[in-house]
Design goal:
4 helices, about 180 residues, alpha+beta
Amino acid sequence: MQHAINTTTDLEVLPAVAGAYLLVIHLEEAAALPEHFRGLHLPAGCYLYAGNANGHGGIRSRCRRHLRAIKAKHWHVDWLTSVASDLAAVAFPGASECALIAGLLDRSGVRSPVPGFGSTDCRHCPSHLVQIDGPRTAGFWRELLASIEDPDDHVEPMRMRKSFCPDASRPRSRKIE
């Protein structure tokens, strides 16, 4: 199955149903975390944040808020999404954020950089934020999506800003094959 990055900014392609989502966050510069993380900064790099969206409007509504550039900082991830150089969303209808994180942490090159980030109400996950180390080739993204859920169950990632977690060793690409 081919996973193309939709180059539109139309959030209507995300489902308005309950489920989980991943935010793909590329930081070109270090980002400050909320004060209770004691002055920690995340280094530049590629991160994935898993969240649940079970309320009114489901995944579409939650991602619409996260993908806005200007917003009040309420959730931990707001400190990252407000300064991200690239931001995209992948929807997983009917899934849970904890299942996504468990699948991600089973992969080589994926680690939890900040204990408790986005998971203060979770007793199972070390964090709902993971950092992706190493090259992010088309094959990497295909395998990553397949490893966390059945690829037929997710909605294609959306390109929201100028790049998609570029790998410095490869030219930027608009497509995940």
